[in-house]
């Protein structure tokens, strides 16, 4: 206990900071690439003479590759070690980025984006595993507060950076900019990351992989298609994708509970804290990405701003998150997640509420202030939640826990974006032609109405936060029992 309290208050050592730097550099590339290409789609369409339906696969293909490979992250860490898996994932991402920058057709670019996504999908969960193990439970919140910056800034800065590049340079730089950053991350990782243990006897759950990867891919693809070309949740194609993906995921769950070495260990949900944190992460992903979908669209459609300006107008949210993220992590280390996350979640609701009163002439300053408030809530919630999800787990459980929470966050964001897209499309259908009198005011009201659903998701995300742990007494579990199984620890999990 004394050791834990000492770790909570002592400064982060140089080795841990160097490890965090390598992880941040790799993570921010992966997250940026989920949004940076969106603003360049029009330029890519013109460059290759492709249809919108074809060029859309530049983003959809990347998301599908992420969904396919994320489940493999936990197994890769157990089988090959975190250091080697991280270096392979980074190298594959850099290689894919270089190929994307050299693409000669829309089809080649889509294929190269798949390669890039196969590396990018493993970067985030493996990076979090490395940090979780290096920091230990006592310093988890502070370190997550550092590496959480890309998670918040990536979706905001992606459109800004993409807009700058396509406006003043070639679209190819969108991909080539990853190469020097990735090389630096690899060099730091080679120096900072310790050689992890490899378990050559750890076999791949091929049955589980055959169920969960296509299941996730079908689910993510189905959700991403909702709202495009007039498709809704009742469109036969969407129904087939969502139903098929759901069936495969249910089959995976049944299989994972029966096999001894599942790709994802669902037994982790026997931990009360992990289960609650997972629910919070899913709902928080919905609250975050729902707002990130609506606001840039509002700025462009209603206010007539360019993609670059719309991205810049989103920056206050990232700045608000950065202002408190480091502090919230340290506070959560000292007082427990329950002391900070419920307040942060409530602040998200307060920061989102002004958007339910949007008009076609709402003050940009007013919106910027609301963005800062919303960002503060995100900064107080996201990384303390991630840190709380590891509390009480055995050292060997961390890779599978990270993989699970990464999947839940992505699905939460996909579900929210799909639902809001359908609701917003209904508002557009009722508004009539853009040439109609008062069209902008009507659409602005439609955005405001849709934001009430985002408010509902944000309020829903607050409820489970009150059941998070209120203290950190069990923070030294890893040092005491680094090999202890999750099932043994689950029986001792405190209920406070």
Strand portion: under 5%
How many domains comprise the coordinates? 3
Structural class: mainly alpha
The helix/strand series, from N terminus to C terminus, equals HHHHHHHHHHHHHHHHHHHHHHH
CATH homology group of the largest domain: MFS general substrate transporter like domains
* Contiguous helical run count: 23
Mean pLDDT: 78
The whole-angstrom Rg is 22 Å
What does this structure look like?
The protein is an all-alpha fold. The chain folds into three domains: 198 residues, MFS general substrate transporter like domains (Growth Hormone, Chain: A, Up-down Bundle), CATH 1.20.1250.20; 58 residues; 226 residues, Up-down Bundle (Growth Hormone, Chain: A), CATH 1.20.1250. 73% of the residues lie in helices and 0% in strands. The chain has 23 helices and no strands. The radius of gyration is 22 Å and the shape is globular.
Give a concise summary.
The chain is built from 23 helices and no strands. It has 496 residues and is mostly helical. The protein is globular and about 65 Å long.
Topology:
Blueprint lengths: L1 H8 L4 H19 L8 H8 L3 H4 L1 H13 L2 H9 L1 H20 L4 H30 L4 H8 L1 H20 L4 H4 L1 H15 L13 H20 L10 H21 L15 H30 L5 H7 L1 H21 L5 H12 L11 H26 L8 H34 L7 H24 L14 H4 L5 H5 L6
Helix pairs in contact: 2-8, 2-10, 2-12, 5-8, 5-13, 6-7, 6-8, 6-20, 7-8, 7-12, 8-9, 8-20, 9-17, 9-19, 10-16, 10-17, 13-14, 13-20, 15-16, 15-19, 15-20, 15-21, 17-19, 18-19, 18-21, 20-21
């Amino acid at each position: 206990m004394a050791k834990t309290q000492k770790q909570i208050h002592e400064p982060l050592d140089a080795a841990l900071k160097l490890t965090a730097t390598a992880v941040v550099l790799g993570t921010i590339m992966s997250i940026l690439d989920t949004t940076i290409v969106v603003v360049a789609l029009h330029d890519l369409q013109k460059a290759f003479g492709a249809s919108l339906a074809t060029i859309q696969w530049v983003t959809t293909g990347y998301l599908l590759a992420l969904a396919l490979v994320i489940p493999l992250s936990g197994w890769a860490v157990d089988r090959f070690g975190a250091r080697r898996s991280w270096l392979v994932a980074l190298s594959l991402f850099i290689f894919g980025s270089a190929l994307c920058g050299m693409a000669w057709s829309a089809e080649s670019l889509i294929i190269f984006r798949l390669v890039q996504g196969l590396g990018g999908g493993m970067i985030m969960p493996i990076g979090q595993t490395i940090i979780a193990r290096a920091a230990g439970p006592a310093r988890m919140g502070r370190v997550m507060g550092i590496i959480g910056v890309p998670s918040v800034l990536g979706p905001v800065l992606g459109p800004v950076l993409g807009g700058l590049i396509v406006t003043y340079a070639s679209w190819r730089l969108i991909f080539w900019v990853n190469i020097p950053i990735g090389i630096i991350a690899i060099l730091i990782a080679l120096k900072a990351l310790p050689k992890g243990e490899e378990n050559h006897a750890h076999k791949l759950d091929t049955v589980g992989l055959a169920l969960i990867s296509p299941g996730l891919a079908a689910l993510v693809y189905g959700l991403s298609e909702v709202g495009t070309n007039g498709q809704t949740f009742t469109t036969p194609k969407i129904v087939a994708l969502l139903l098929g993906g759901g069936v495969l995921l249910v089959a995976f769950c049944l299989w994972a509970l029966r096999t001894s070495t599942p790709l994802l260990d669902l037994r982790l949900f026997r931990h009360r804290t992990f289960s609650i944190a997972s629910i919070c992460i899913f709902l928080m992903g919905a609250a975050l990405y729902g707002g990130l979908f609506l606001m840039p669209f509002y700025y462009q459609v209603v206010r007539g701003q360019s993609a670059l300006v719309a991205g810049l107008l989103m920056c206050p949210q990232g700045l608000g998150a950065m202002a408190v993220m480091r502090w919230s992590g340290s506070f959560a280390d000292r007082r427990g997640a329950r002391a900070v996350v419920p307040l942060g979640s409530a602040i998200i609701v307060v920061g989102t509420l002004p958007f339910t009163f949007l008009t076609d002439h709402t003050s940009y300053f007013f919106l910027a202030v609301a963005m800062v408030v919303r960002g503060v809530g995100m900064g107080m919630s996201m990384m303390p939640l991630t840190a709380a999800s590891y509390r009480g787990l055995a050292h060997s459980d961390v890779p599978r826990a990270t993989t699970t929470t990464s999947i839940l966050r992505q699905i939460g964001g996909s579900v929210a974006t799909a639902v809001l897209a359908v609701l917003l499309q209904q508002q557009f259908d009722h508004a009539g032609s853009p040439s109609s009198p008062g069209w902008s005011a009507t659409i602005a009201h439609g955005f405001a109405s849709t934001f009430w659903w985002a408010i509902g998701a944000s309020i829903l995300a607050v409820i489970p936060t009150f059941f998070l742990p209120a203290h950190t007494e069990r923070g030294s579990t890893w040092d005491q029992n680094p090999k202890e199984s999750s099932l043994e620890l689950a029986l001792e999990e405190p209920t406070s």
